[in-house]
Amino acid sequence: MKLDLLKNQWLEIVFEGRNKLYGAYELRKSNNKTTMKSLIIGAIIFSFLVSLPMLASLLPEKSDDVVLDQKITTVKLPPKEEKPKENLPPPPPPPPKVDQVKFVKPVVAKAEEVTEEPPKMEEIKEKNIGKETIKGDPDAELTVEPVGTGTAAVVEEDNNIYNTAGIEVKPDFPGGIEKFYKFVAKNYEIPEEEGLKGKVFVSFVVEKDGSLTDIKVIRDIGYGTGKEAIRVLKACPRWTPGEQNGKKVRVLYSLPINIQSPD
């Protein structure tokens, strides 16, 4: 028995006794149909591609000439605003009422070096003398510079309080800080409290006249020590004031006062 490979008889022999539900059997069984479909689809696509130039030539050509029926209207744009120019030189002054003749300072020189001769007496008669020659205008109006108000500039007084750290000339007690501590020790009345010992920190402002103001106790040790320190500082002689930029200024000063009761 001869087998025709183009038919499906050989499939039955190959898959005899095997599972025909397997995908390979179905693929081989429908192979002829799949091949024919592919050939037909390919032939249709090929024929379409070959006939494209002919189809394109049958299409009507689009005209490039377009007729415009719209009227052209002229629109006037507003004039462009020009910004005023900055840093322009001031306008020249009006011509004087009387002619002005340039004054040439006489210089002793050689004849060949003289470039400009001074004006003659007839030329400067009834005329002003200036740096250049200007033609006068008899009809020009006389202008007078406005007179000032007579009010002098007011210099504001410096009432700022400076710190001793950045002051040029620090305030000082007459005779030095050691004499200040001697003054405090002489006038300070220590409270009658056994074993009292410590420091009272005070601050005050040395005014421009050397007086002490705004006296404050930053920290004390109790028993009226801070109050007594304020009393002594109020009775303190005037200090030499501090200076900044060559002028007397107000300066904030702070220092400690040692307190120790007698044993």
The stretches of 5 or more residues where confidence is low (pLDDT under 50) are none
Structural class: alpha/beta
Q: Could you report the average pLDDT, rounded to the nearest whole number?
A: 75
How many helices? 6
The biggest sheet, with number of strands, parallel, antiparallel or mixed sense and barrel status, is: 5 strands, mixed
Radius of gyration: 58 Å
* Helix/strand order: HHHEHEEHEEHEE
Total strands: the figure is: 7
Helix content: 25-40%
Strand content: 15-25%
SSE topology:
Elements: H1 9-14, H2 23-29, H3 31-58, E1 100-102, H4 121-124, E2 128-130, E3 161-163, H5 177-187, E4 197-206, E5 212-219, H6 225-234, E6 242-244, E7 247-260
Parallel strand pairs: 1-2, 3-7
Antiparallel strand pairs: 4-5, 4-7, 6-7
